[in-house]
Amino acid sequence: xxxxxxxxxxxxxxxxxxxxxxxxxxxxxxxxxxxxxxxxxxxxxxxxxxxxxxxxxxxxxxxxxxxxxxxxxxxxxxxxxxxxxxxxxxxxxxxxxxxxxxxxxxxxxxxxxxxxxxxxxxxxxxxxxxxxxxxxxxxxxxxxxxxxxxxxxxxxxxxxxxxxxxxxxxxxxxxxxxxxxxxxxxxxxxxxxxxxxxxxxxxxxxxxxxxxxxxxxxxxxxxxxxxxxxxxxxxxxxxxxxxxxxxxxxxxxxxxxxxxxxxxxxxxxxxxxxxxxxxxxxxxxxxxxxxxxxxxxxxxxxxxxxxxxxxxxxxxxxxxxxxxxxxxxxxxxxxx
Amino acid sequence: xxxxxxxxxxxxxxxxxxxxxxxxxxxxxxxxxxxxxxxxxxxxxxxxxxxxxxxxxxxxxxxxxxxxxxxxxxxxxxxxxxxxxxxxxxxxxxxxxxxxxxxxxxxxxxxxxxxxxxxxxxxxxxxxxxxxxxxxxxxxxxxxxxxxxxxxxxxxxxxxxxxxxxxxxxxxxxxxxxxxxxxxxxxxxxxxxxxxxxxxxxxxxxxxxxxxxxxxxxxxxxxxxxxxxxxxxxxxxxxxxxxxxxxxxxxxxxxxxxxxxxxxxxxxxxxxxxxxxxxxxxxxxxxxxxxxxxxxxxxxxxxxxxxxxxxxxxxxxxxxxxxxxxxxxxxxxxxxxxxxxxxxxxxxxxxxxxxxxxxxxxxxxxxxxxxxxxxxxxxxxxxxxxxxxxxxxxxxxxxxxxxxxxxxxxxxxxxxxxxxxxxxxxxxxxxxxxxxxxxxxxxxxxxxxxxxxxxxxxxxxxxxxxxxxxxxxxxxxxxxxxxxxxxxxxxxxxxxxxxxxxxxxxxxxxxxxxxxxxxxxxxxxxxxxxx
Amino acid sequence: xxxxxxxxxxxxxxxxxxxxxxxxxxxxxxxxxxxxxxxxxxxxxxxxxxxxxxxxxxxxxxxxxxxxxxxxxxxxxxxxxxxxxxxxxxxxxxxxxxxxxxxxxxxxxxxxxxxxxxxxxxxxxxxxxxxxxxxxxxxxxxxxxxxxxxxxxxxxxxxxxxxxxxxxxxxxxxxxxxxxxxxxxxxxxxxxxxxxxxxxxxxxxxxxxxxxxxxxxxxxxxxxxxxxxxxxxxxxxxxxxxxxxxxxxxxxxxxxxxxxxxxxxxxxxxxxxxxxxxxxxxxxxxxxxxxxxxxxxxxxxx
Lengths: 336, 531, 302
Fold this sequence. Notes:
The structure holds 3 protein chains of 3 kinds.
Chain A: H1 2-29, H2 34-39, H3 46-55, H4 62-75, H5 88-123, H6 128-142, H7 145-159, H8 182-188, H9 194-229, H10 232-239, H11 244-282, H12 287-297, H13 300-328, H14 330-335
Chain B: H1 2-17, E1 26-31, H2 46-52, E2 60-62, E3 69-71, E4 74-79, E5 85-90, H3 110-121, H4 136-140, H5 143-146, E6 147-154, E7 157-162, H6 169-173, H7 183-191, H8 197-200, E8 208-214, E9 218-223, E10 236-241, H9 245-253, E11 259-261, H10 268-272, E12 277-283, E13 286-292, H11 302-311, H12 314-320, E14 326-328, H13 351-360, E15 366-371, H14 383-396, E16 399-404, H15 408-416, E17 422-428, H16 435-442, H17 460-470, H18 475-492, E18 495-508, E19 511-512, E20 528-529
Parallel strand pairs in B: 1-10, 15-16, 15-17
Antiparallel strand pairs in B: 2-3, 4-5, 5-7, 6-7, 8-9, 9-10, 11-18, 12-18, 13-17, 13-18, 14-18, 19-20
Chain C: H1 2-5, H2 14-30, H3 32-49, H4 51-54, H5 92-128, H6 130-144, H7 148-159, H8 163-190, H9 193-200, H10 205-216, H11 218-241, H12 253-259, H13 269-296
């Protein structure tokens, strides 16, 4: 097992440095001078220009700059935002809980609905329900979620007034930021109704963000079920007279769960990508919206730092999934 | 981590000071963008200025509903006969806000004013380089050459000497960038090694105290119980950042916020039909225009400029792009400014005459680039659409226009570098003075690389008139000079003035005493909520 | 996805391949979903080719007396503009029709680019192995570590917004999928007896690659191509929606939707119709891709 783990980590290290390199050249590939970009439209005196270049460390040889950048990254120093002058890492940390909260709820929704829906479809292969489920999930899979989100806002928030339009909590609550997770902070505060308000605000963004993973999880669960149900030991179990539900519970589900868990783990990248659009539509103050705005403002340190952190997170999650998979499934481990 | 802890602690401290949650009157404002920081000295964007405004006072301030001046932190002032020396008598009862890591030991004095201006003015001031060290407004208003000295006579008397008389000086002091900071707070933060905190956690004397800012989400304030003009009727103020106009309006309709600015014109009829809402409007202090680059052929020929002016159907643009929320412009200043020359009329839409003029000027086939702004502004709600309409109109007189656009900062830089042929642009007044439009945007001194005169138009006659008007204080004489300058502008047509946008804010009917300020900053002093 | 990468076919011989095509077609015809997907795709193709004839008006023509006219099924609509007009008085139907050209073009160019480059990289990595394999696959890993939309955003941020740059961005995003798929197919084929046999028989490496291995990797690539086609359209539209893809007045669907956002409440059709167009197109390609996978994947055929 240790050897497998070491090999897996050995694989991730070069990728990590590759990403550091990629984000490093990113800011240097941008047409024009980063100092000019930072100062925007107004003219700049030559001595101030030189001073800023020095301050940003851009007057040194490229190799030295790269080493400095790597050292900074390893120390957790990701530079300073052009527009707010705040450290990128601090900005990331202040916005990340909002994205985590949303992403977590989306995964939860995807799992809670996707797995039962997939199991049922797998058990009743070829039935009307199966067809409906497959059609629905393919539609969800094909959905332009920016449009889907707008439709939901128009219907449920604007016309029916069931859910709030935007924001994380009703503005009349002065909930203190303790954890950064609005639902938890609302529970911790003693303001009445704050928790409910936070949940209501999460509803639509969660549905929008969960659409794609939900479709994928349902489809994956169905095909995993089909595969497992076709195996001999399940047939045996059924022949022995076990009820369908028990068979599913006892044998099929446990075995089908392995690929399903993998797929859920792999959805993290999809979710973070989806968060970019979902957060933009709902003005959700998270990482996705932050990055889109950084592009509009040409705030390259933010883009650079944000991309690096997200890529590292995705790699980390993939590593965990791989290791977990290896633990669950010894065949993989020894196969390598 | 330290910062997060601090914010929480500050919020907790303030929460104790506040009236109990259930009874608190909360004013909620859906703002149009995120602030970059909370120091109006170093930022120039509308959302940043609006976010800092409730916390601070200026020496002189604008009235709540006009660009007339009233006393602020200065109770009164005298101007010497030569217009070079201003003596301000300062308020004694203004206190700076207390925070848990900063407790002011004294009231506001002349030292605070000096420290405020020194930061922007003196390159060796310890704060000068903090947070980027660019003081755009200070420099744009010409303060770095205009100021000769600022001296403290005693704690409550301040003398300012200028290098030359300037009719717009007092109005400039009322602008948000001239907000007065606490010297004590600046010193304390410098000592603590966190000078940039002055720009992130503002301390002022204003009607509201800053509580916290959740990035891209909310800015919270609580009422200042010791405000020198009396405690405000509302207890809490929240800005909810909502950049998308459609979402902003949906929120105000759903009651999630009580006030929201800048609805999209298409939503207006529906919003006006909502019995719970009050749609407020005000002719804006702005102008949107199409600048001809007069340094490029054939636009150095005024016949060609006239031809294009007549080829573009501005009525159709105002109808389609502004959807009635603008008026066709004739002059470089809006009609709300006292120097407006109402005898001048916009050039009529006349395709045949335009063709004839082009022929006369010897222009046959012509290809130009037409620059469209990438952002939405009160003077131009949809620059892309406007450009598409202009493109279609120009095609009718045989001019092929290619639409170009860049990111906003890049766009302005390239315009000011003179890369364009036809460029959309606009201006929102800073202080309500005609000089702020006519001198800044069109005089010879700004017709340079990197200058605001993007038409690159230099008329000696025009420039002499506006320069002269700047140095006299008699309004009647100034009016006459500006009216004459507008005639020169009209005859020469360096721009095609397109429209003056009308500014709209939408409020719940519960909101009392709110008025749109002509300069665009929301002002919550005196605002109340009916329960 | 996992099923794709194990896709295998029998050794090559012309007759066999023909029978495979016929078999696939038979299996596809039984799949109602795939057939409806195919029908929509064909229809879209015809619309795109004959856009100038089918569209009632030019895509950029402005009817300034008909701003925001509702579609024919709503009150105030007229047959002159069946899907209504947008805020500049342009016919929405005509813009959608011309937009289909763009969407199909985007799908086609993006997929051809990633198929060619990604396929080539995968082929080289799988066939030559060693350092080439290591370098190529590590580079692909780096690209895969970024969420696809984020990667596309970063590329557009560097290149600047615009339709061409958006297409390049999306194409780069898809590269690693094709490269991995190709490599996996090559590896699994290369181990087979017939390949070993040809090698023993003295076939050159190049011949081996083009004549023997490549034809047998076609099936999974076809499926991946179809599915990527829809993903390319969706991603390009998302970039357009974020203001980083095609720039107005280009009638690209995502861009149309974004530029009409402020009319969401006042004139919902200018927002909903382009969205419907995207959904239907993407769904059609996904249905077809799904059907193709079922038809080509021997595992599900039992």
